[in-house]
C-alpha cells in the first residue's frame, strides 16, 4: 500500500469503527454487559443478534477499547465503554444512535451529491428536517436526546461562566426539552423563564420542567420564531439555533428577537464559533452535517456572526468561552 497521511487512512477506518459503535448502541450491548462479562452466545441472545456476526463486531470494539476479552469467547465492558450505557450521566449512546439513524446516515453518504448540486440530498428524500422529525416521533425523541446530550458541556459552561441579571426573565427560543433553561434557572433562583418552541416539541418541555420542579417559574409558549417570539424578555437565548439557517433567515429571527426584547435586553447566541485558522476544529466537523442536512445551514466565524447581527440592528458586546469548543456571543441593540 502506498504511503499516505495517517489522518487520511484514519478517516477511512473511522467509518467502520463508527458502524461498530452504532451496532453496540442499537443492540444495547453496554447495558447487557453492565453487570459483568458474558460469552458471545449469551450476549447475542440478550441482544437479539446473530452470534457469529456479533462476535466480529466485538472483535472490532475490543480493538477500540470499549470492550475487552474476558476468557474464551467472552467479553466485558471497559471504563471507556461505560459511556455507551443508557443509564449513566453523559451517555453518548443517544448521540451515536442519532448520527447513525437511517436518514442522517443517508445525508452524510450523499454529501458528494449535495455539494455537486448545491442543495441537500437529505431534503430531497426526507423533506425539511423539522417536518421529518414532526412526522416521525421515534426519530424526534432520539434527536431530542442527542441534542440534550450534546448540550450538557455547553450548558454547564453557560451557567458557570456567564453572569445573568439576577431577576431577569430569559426567553429560550427554540428551547427544545428545556434542559438549558432548567440549568440556568437552578443556578439563578430569582430568574424566571419562557420556553418557546414548536407545538409538537413543547409537550416534552412540560415534562422536563415539571420534573425539575420549575413549572411555577416557566411559561411555555408554542409558535413560529419566523413570525415572532414572546415579548418582554430581558435575555433571549438562541442555543444551536442560528446555525440551522442561512444568513437571510438568521437575520429574520434576530430581528424578531430585537423587536420583542426589553430596551436594555440582550441576545445570547450559544454556538460553536469557527476559528480563523486551518486547524482541525469541532465546528468544522459539525458544519459537514449542517451542509448535508440543511439548505443554507452553516457554522460561522465570529466575524460572520457580527455581520448577521449587524443586519438585524445588533452588535456584539461580549464573547465568552464555554469550553468543549462552544462560545457564548452576547449582543445588544446597536
From TrEMBL:
The reply to whether Cytoplasm figures as a keyword in the UniProt entry is no
The UniProt keyword set, sorted, is:
Methyltransferase, S-adenosyl-L-methionine, Transferase
Which parts of the sequence belong to the O-methyltransferase dimerisation domain? Answer: 19-83
> What Gene Ontology molecular-function terms does this entry list?
methyltransferase activity
Question: Is the keyword Phosphoprotein assigned to this protein?
Answer: no
Enumerate the SUPFAM superfamilies for this protein.
S-adenosyl-L-methionine-dependent methyltransferases, Winged helix' DNA-binding domain
Outline the extent of the O-methyltransferase C-terminal domain: 111-313
- Which protein are we looking at? Methyltransferase
Q: Which InterPro entries match?
A: COMT-like (IPR016461), COMT_C (IPR001077), COMT_dimerisation (IPR012967), SAM-dependent_MTases_sf (IPR029063), WH-like_DNA-bd_sf (IPR036388), WH_DNA-bd_sf (IPR036390)
GO BP annotations listed: methylation
